[in-house]
Amino acid sequence: MLLGVNIDHVATLRNARGGAEPDPVMAAKIAEENGATSITAHLREDRRHIMDNDIKALKRILKTKLNLEMAVTDEMQKIALNIKPHSVCLVPEKRQEITTEGGLDVAGQLNKITTFVQPLTEAGILVSLFIDPSEEQVRAAAKTGAQFIELHTGQYSLAFGTPDEEEEFMKLNESSRLAHNLGLKVNAGHGLNYENVHRMRQIEDLYELNIGHSIISRAVFTGLDKAVADMAKLVK
Ligand code: PXP
Fold first, then answer.
1. DSSP code per residue over 40-106
2. Is the peptide bond between 24 and the residue preceding it cis, with omega within 30 degrees of 0?
3. How much is the pTM?
């Protein structure tokens, strides 16, 4: 299994003082040097952390893959078609939320998502849909032309160590299996940390995990190089 590192929090810290440090591009380089196989950056509508210039710089310097996380809007589609990241991950976006709260409702807006995905895949960009682990959403995702889904592991992460853990884990496991049978590749992420990540290895054929918060948090104490390397060891 591969490890994608989300560097949004580095940009959040930078923007707290409005200056240039810490530099998310430097963070991406360190992550790559220590086992990350892709870098995710979420360009939000309100630009609260990652900015347009960060995406351009990442595209220029990354040796691995740039995964641009973005909302289903005309503005973001235009930016993606212009920058041409390796992949995009489509997420729902609400201005007030602290982080991406739930999966994209693909089943409820199948035509809209399908139409949105088409020019991206035609431009050679891999498209991933961030969805909750439910049969309905997986089946809908398989109809859109997207090549990947990213299963939302937030509920599993919250339930970890509680009586609900098994049920949440099984949803991920079954959704992953179904997605594979329908020809999709499967990533997963949100809320994963050094304690709960090990169970992801029990899910067959997960391709890549995208992890941000726990790695950047640990980096405050250990340095980013060690925080990424430690997670990469757990994931591989
Ligand atoms: N995947 C997606 C689609 C996300 O929105 C996020 C959070 O930005 C992550 C993965 C990473 O989540 P976390 O920061 O909790 O590791």
1. EEE--TT-SSS-HHHHHHHHHH-SS-EEEEE-SSHHHHHHHHHH--SEEEE----TT-SS--S----
2. no
3. 0.96
- C-alpha torsion 199→201→202→208, nearest 10: 110
Closest CA to 6 of 163, 218, 150, 212: 212
Q: Is the pLDDT of residue 102 over 90?
A: no
- Hey, how many other C-beta atoms are within 10 angstroms of the C-beta on 209? 25
State yes or no: pLDDT of 64 exceeds 70.
yes
* 212 within ligand 1 shell (Cβ under 6 A): yes
pLDDT band at 100 (very low <50, low <70, confident <90, very high): low
* Distance of CA 209 from the midpoint of ligand 1 (Å): 10
Sketch the domain layout of the chain as residue ranges.
2-235
The answer on pLDDT for 190 being more than 90 is yes
CATH of span 2-235: 3.20.20.70
pLDDT digits (tens, 9 = 90+) for 106-115: 999 999 999 9
Question: Using CA atoms, how far apart are residues 172 and 58, in angstroms rounded to an integer?
Answer: 31
Exactly one of 69, 93, 168, 208 is catalytic; name it.
69
Mean pLDDT of the chain: 96
**Would you say residue 134 has pLDDT above 80?**
yes
Which two three-digit tokens encode residue 31?
């992550």
Q: Is 125 left (phi over 0), alpha (psi -120 to 50) or beta?
A: beta
6 CA: nearest ligand 1 atom: 11
Q: One of 9, 49, 152, 190 is an active-site residue; which one? A: 190
Rounded Cα–Cα distance for residues 190 and 156 (Å)? 9
101 has pLDDT over 90: no
